[in-house]
Amino acid sequence: MILLGIETSCDETALSLLEIRGNSADPLAVKGGFECRVIVSLIHSQAELHSAYGGVYPSLAKREHGKNLIPLLHKLLIEAGMTIHPEKADAIPAFDELVEKFRTDIAPQNPELFETFSHADFLRSKPPIDGIAVTQGPGLEPALWVGIAGAQMLGELWNVPVIPVNHMEGHIVGSLLPSDVSNGTWQVLHEAPLPALAFLLSGGHTELVLMRALGEYEIIGQTKDDAVGEAFDKTARLLGLPYPGGPHLAMLAQKAKDEGIAPPVRLPRPMISSGDLDFSFSGLKTAVLYAVRDAGGTPDETWRKGLALEFEQAVTETLDAKLRKALDQTGARSLVIGGGVSANDALRNTFTATAAEYDIPLFMPSRHISGDNALMITLAGALILDRDSSQGSTQKRITPGSLRAHGTKRLGSDPIS
Questions:
Q1: pLDDT-based confidence at 30, cuts 50/70/90?
Q2: Per the domain annotation, does 412 fall within a domain?
Q3: Residue 45 pairs with which residues in a beta bridge?
Q4: Are residues 274 and 353 located together in one domain of the fold?
Q5: What angle do CA 172, 177, 180 make, to 5 degrees?
Q6: 127 & 238 share domain
Q7: Does 65 share its domain with 160?
């Protein structure tokens, strides 16, 4: 079975193709059952367009997803060797009729998407795709709607099921994929002893999640305001760094380490002794604002390097303290790190040391799938199908208009609503 994955939750338009075979009652614990092979995974970033705003501008993200989704699909199918001329295959006889239907259903809300779809002659023949996994939420709702509309059009065109996926579950299962190499070999997921503790760190989320089984999640700690990735980006902006700021701030902090630059101020470690597993990063961001102001508003490069290092250390110490408390309270037997902030080297090194101290296996995503991507969404969709088949049920077919974008969707909520 081959699944197409679509991810448009923020400012990356991403698509992937994943081939799966076999099944098992528990893909995380049973080897030799569920297997997958990465065919192609592509990401088109809008970061340069949004840099002028210092962050993601939702209406611009929506428009760009609409312009890019179908051309990126064409590129994906070409790289996968799946493009077939209609005259040499079973052409879709109802293509023109469906275009007219989508003109009413889709075009008013997603004109750019409809325009590219209606002129995509390569879609007149069906590629060997058996289902479509698409991000339903959480994320920016205008952006999510583009991916959902695209999935529903393709699902109806190809007569294949559409599987709604929670973006955060994608981050969890993506960290269990041994390799993201395109056209790679067949592989099984890493075996994560249960219960597992998932630590999800991104621009929109900072969550500690207890996973008792695949698909069974309990959020045991979360941020009360800014997510850690948002705090990185806002701090980077205060230091005059370009968007997305997290990687630039990390490079500045590394230069401070290499050059032996001491932090110019001491920043707070927010809620580190609160007694619970929740987070708050707005105060840390405000402390950076005051530090920059007190330094005259335009601090020199040495000061900025030292401040970047202090900020990174404050975040690392805070996250690690909460992680240790969660491990103590839950007795988790493995640790899964997910989300774009997991690409930060200081955090990866700290989490590696903590997992070793607790003598539990640690699973972190490769660089390609640490941020938003469609491969993790496709994999999550495949595992949903696997769970359904092992339980004797089948995934409901999602028809155009029945699936809704859910910007604040939480792990563990109903997959359809």
A1: very low
A2: no
A3: 12
A4: yes
A5: 120
A6: no
A7: yes
pLDDT surpassing 90 at residue 399: no
If one counts every other C-beta atom within 10 angstroms of the C-beta of residue 36, the result is 26
CB neighbours (10 Å) of residue 402?
Answer: 12
Same domain, 168 and 217: no
Q: Where is 235: in which H helix or E strand?
A: helix 228-238
Q: For residue 154, what are its two tokens?
A: 């393709």
40, 182 contact by CB (below 8 A): yes
Tokens of 401: 């208009």
- Both 12 and 110 in one domain: the answer is yes
The reported pTM is 0.92
Instruction: For residues 54 and 237, give the distance between their C-alpha atoms in angstroms, rounded to a whole number.
Output: 7
Distance (Å, rounded) from C-alpha 179 to C-alpha 41? 12
Query: Per DSSP, what are the bridge partners of residue 5?
Result: 16, 133
Helix boundaries (H) for 295-390? 301-330, 345-358, 374-390
Residues 63 and 160 grouped into a single domain: yes
According to DSSP, the residues that pair with 213 across neighbouring strands are 216
**CA angle 406–411–417, rounded 5-degree value:** 40
Predicted confidence band of residue 81 (pLDDT cuts 50, 70, 90): very high
- Per DSSP, 386 falls in state H
Using one digit for the tens of pLDDT, what is the confidence trace for 137-190? 999 999 999 999 999 999 999 999 999 999 999 999 999 999 999 988 999 999
User: Which residue type does 139 have?
Assistant: G
Q: Are 129 and 81 in contact (CB under 8 A)?
A: no
Angle value at C-alpha 351, between 38 and 203, nearest 5 degrees: 65
- 307, 239 Cβ separation under 8 angstroms: yes
Q: What is the DSSP letter of 24?
A: -
pLDDT of residue 28: 58
Asked if 41 and 368 count as a contact pair (C-beta separation under 8 A), the reply is yes
Q: Which residue has the higher pLDDT, 361 or 86?
A: 361
- Between CA 264 and CA 304 the distance in angstroms is 9
